[in-house]
Amino acid sequence: MKAVIFDLDGTLIDSAPDLHAAVNCMLDDLRRPPLTLERVAGFVGNGVPTLVERCLEATGGLAEDFDRALARFREHYARSPARLTRPYPGVELALERLTLAGLALGVCTNKPQEFAVTILEELRMMPFIRTVVGGDATPKLKPDPAPLLLCLDRLGADGTSALYVGDSEIDAETAFRAKVPFALFSGGYLRESIDAFEPLYVFDHFGDLSDHVLGGGR
């Protein structure tokens, strides 16, 4: 194996608390009721515009000026995208182990590039990541395979020499369409039953993932 590529939200990091805070600031600007953390976490995964759209639909319907609502969310989120966000247990050590073993690591996420890089830098994970493909790096978001294929290309890998790690049905479909083996982190934002798809490997702690990869598992 040459490379391991990770989704970001719900996989490497629990970002829901900061997304939740920005969403409720946006809703307050629009004089709408707040949403719970659990509700917002359930909307994560399809990119920022879809997150905002789902939150608006849950609080009275789409705003007439959707672009303004989206801009307000981005402004609030940009102020502190990593204040409450934390890596999942074992992430830092797993990234270090995989890097020391000579594997190239990448991140492929629907989160906008600027936010993704900022969070990885603030949480001190960027030194382990060779490339980041954000949601605005290609014309289409995951589950379209284009972002993952771009990440593979940047790492000099392909479906026979890489593993994609994610937490959702979106990530599973992306890996399938890009013809890349998929490992599921079960502690993220999965909305469907694991039985709905067939990951190569399922784990609930990142120490198990690094053991699996470095032990020769695929």
TrEMBL record:
The active site is at residue 7. It catalyses: 2-phosphoglycolate + H2O = glycolate + phosphate. Its cofactor is Mg(2+). Pathway: Organic acid metabolism; glycolate biosynthesis; glycolate from 2-phosphoglycolate: step 1/1. Mg(2+) binds at residues 7, 9, 167. The keyword Nucleotide-binding does not apply. Keywords: Carbohydrate metabolism, Hydrolase, Magnesium, Metal-binding. The keyword Metal-binding applies. Its EC number is 3.1.3.18. PANTHER family: PHOSPHOGLYCOLATE PHOSPHATASE. Belongs to the HAD-like hydrolase superfamily. CbbY/CbbZ/Gph/YieH family. HAMAP family: GPH_hydrolase_bact. Specifically catalyzes the dephosphorylation of 2-phosphoglycolate. Is involved in the dissimilation of the intracellular 2-phosphoglycolate formed during the DNA repair of 3'-phosphoglycolate ends, a major class of DNA lesions induced by oxidative stress. This is Phosphoglycolate phosphatase. It comes from Methylobacterium isbiliense. The gene is cbbZC.
